[in-house]
Design goal:
With about 475 residues, this protein is of the alpha/beta class. The chain has three domains: about 5-195, Lambda Exonuclease, Chain A, CATH 3.90.320; about 220-285, DNA polymerase, domain 1; about 300-485, Ribonuclease H-like superfamily/Ribonuclease H (Nucleotidyltransferase, domain 5). Helix content is about 45%, strand content about 15%. The chain is built from 18 helices and 17 strands. It has helices at about 25-35, 35-45, 55-75, 85, 135-145, 175-195, 210-220, 230-240, 245-250, 250-260, 270-285, 340-355, 370-380, 385-390, 395-405, 415-420, 435-445, 450-485; strands at about 5-10, 25, 80, 90-95, 100, 105-110, 110-115, 120-125, 155-160, 165-170, 290, 300-310, 315-320, 330-335, 360, 395, 405. It has a six-stranded mixed sheet. The protein has a five-stranded mixed sheet with strand order 14-13-12-15-16, sandwiched between helices. The protein is globular and about 75 Å long.
């Protein structure tokens, strides 16, 4: 066994590296859940996972580490000295060593341990607001990691500490361990055999996103199609539908019949047709019209886009008043402090009230901007009657587009669709998900020049979205008109 004092080797076996038999860490498992190709690339090129992160995402990681340290101090987790002795007392401890289980070939560093009746119970500290499926897999990983230090057969469990500081006890289920076992096996297989590239949510925080998306498009991977996630992609591959081109040419009635017979979670026939329309758009490079012509044609309106820390504060309000054959008039309000939220929302309220007959257009505002707007409204005790009027005047361009059109671009992000209409963004490396991270960094920094730079990036991104939304809205109107002619 390794004599390194920074490593705690446990288990009766002696794990040896070999093909399909490599050490797997908790980080490997979680990164596999996010993007299997990243696991392969990290292993093949010897790149740490941190090198895949965008600058904005690294800010979030840094904030998460600082949050974790604060929680460790707040709930009284002590530095572990001797786990064997400490498990006999009821303590909260944090092992300093990397723990390696030689029976299973897994290794990891724990955020903390609760010692309860001689049982070591893992603790995970997370800065998000709710328990995720991946949190359960992480706790299952650490429960397995500690098996050689456990006597008897106690109930499997762990603790998760979320961003409110509350410690939540989670009973670990068989499916949590099944997901863990599958992920560990897949990590080892991928390291030897490689993994196909696919479009995944983690692409938004990866510095290689544009390069990899080009490779995915060239391969015609099914993940390019809207509403095809990993389970549907796997079913199609197993059914002989290997790529977007195959799917575009499939007999959709036969495909739906086979799918509905074999999978209780099969998509509806209507959704399958819409998915195929997107595949045909990707193959042909042309828009596919799937609507019935119901469309709110507007010559005038107000575009609205918010930047916010979900559930906590709105820190940018951007709006653009547009009229036919005129350049839009831009409005932007920035909260230099969190307590300025009320002021910028009041400014928005006054501006919207100046145009009582104008519809308010957002992109995905029904599930994003307006719920955050309502929370901010309540926090700052603004007029409920005015907000109700704004909600009555709201049109979600995302919903309108989704009901009518499939574009020859992957997904349904505003940035992708505005690109299709010729909009060139100033900061292509920044996404909506990066804005809260940049704002947190803005609040933390004390340097005036750095604050100005961060504020400029946030406002520029917000303006990009407004201009892009205007191009998409006008483009949608032209597409619908052309298909009604």
């Amino acid at each position: 066994m390794n004599q390194n004092p920074d490593v705690l080797d446990i288990g009766e076996g002696q794990w040896k590296e070999a093909p399909y038999q490599s050490w797997v860490s908790n980080t490997d498992v979680i990164e596999h859940l996010r993007c299997p190709y990243k696991v392969y690339m990290s292993h093949a090129q010897g790149m740490p996972y941190s090198q895949f992160l965008t600058a904005a995402r690294r800010v979030l990681v840094k904030a998460g580490i600082e949050f974790e340290e604060g929680i460790v101090s707040a709930i009284g987790i002590q530095k572990s000295v001797d786990i064997e002795r400490e498990r006999e007392a009821d303590l909260l401890v944090r092992p300093a060593e990397l723990i390696r289980n030689h029976d299973l070939g897994i290794q990891g560093r724990l955020d903390g341990l609760a010692t309860e009746n001689a049982v070591l119970v893992p603790i995970e500290i997370k800065s998000h607001r709710r328990v995720l499926r991946s949190d359960r897999v992480e706790l299952a990983f650490y429960w397995r990691l500690l098996e050689p230090l456990r006597e008897g057969n106690p109930d499997s469990k762990g603790y998760i500490v979320l961003n409110d500081g509350a410690r939540i006890e989670l009973d670990l289920r068989r499916r949590d361990f099944n997901r863990l076992d599958q992920a560990v096996t897949e990590v080892r297989r991928i390291r030897e055999e490689g993994s196909a590239l696919a479009v995944v949510p983690a692409c938004k925080s990866c510095v290689f996103a544009d390069e990899h998306l080009g490779m995915v498009r060239k391969a015609g991977d099914l993940s390019l199609v809207r509403d095809i996630g990993p389970p549907r992609r796997n079913w199609l591959l197993q059914s002989g539908v290997d790529n977007v081109g195959d799917f575009a040419e499939s007999d959709i009635n036969q495909l739906w019949h086979d799918w509905s017979q074999s999978d209780r979670y099969a998509p509806t026939q209507r959704l399958l047709r819409e998915m195929q329309a997107h595949a045909r758009a990707l193959v042909s490079g042309d828009v596919q019209f799937i609507g019935d012509g119901a469309f709110p044609f507007l010559d005038t309106g107000i575009l609205l886009d918010l930047e916010y820390v979900s559930g906590q504060c709105v820190f940018v309000v951007g709006a653009a008043v547009f009229r036919a054959n005129e350049e839009p008039k831009m409005y932007q309000w920035f909260a230099k402090r969190i307590r300025d939220e009320g002021h910028i929302l009041e400014s928005l309220s006054q501006m919207l009230a100046e145009f009582p007959d104008y519809w308010i257009v957002t992109w995905n505002g029904k599930s994003a901007d307006f719920p955050q707007l309502r929370r901010g409204w309540v926090r700052n005790r603004l007029s409920e009657a005015l907000l109700a009027d704004f909600e009555r005047r709201h049109i979600d361009a995302y919903e309108v587009a989704y009901k009518n059109v499939r574009f020859p671009v992957p997904g349904f992000e505003l940035s992708n669709i505005s690109d299709y209409f010729g909009h060139r963004r100033k900061h292509r490396d920044l996404s909506r998900q990066d804005m809260p991270l940049l704002y947190v960094e803005y609040l933390r920094t004390r340097t005036a020049s750095e604050k100005q730079s961060l504020q400029g990036k946030i406002l520029s991104h917000n303006e990009d979205d407004l201009i892009g939304l205007l191009q998409v809205w006008r483009g949608l109107q032209q597409i619908v008109l052309a298909n009604l002619a």
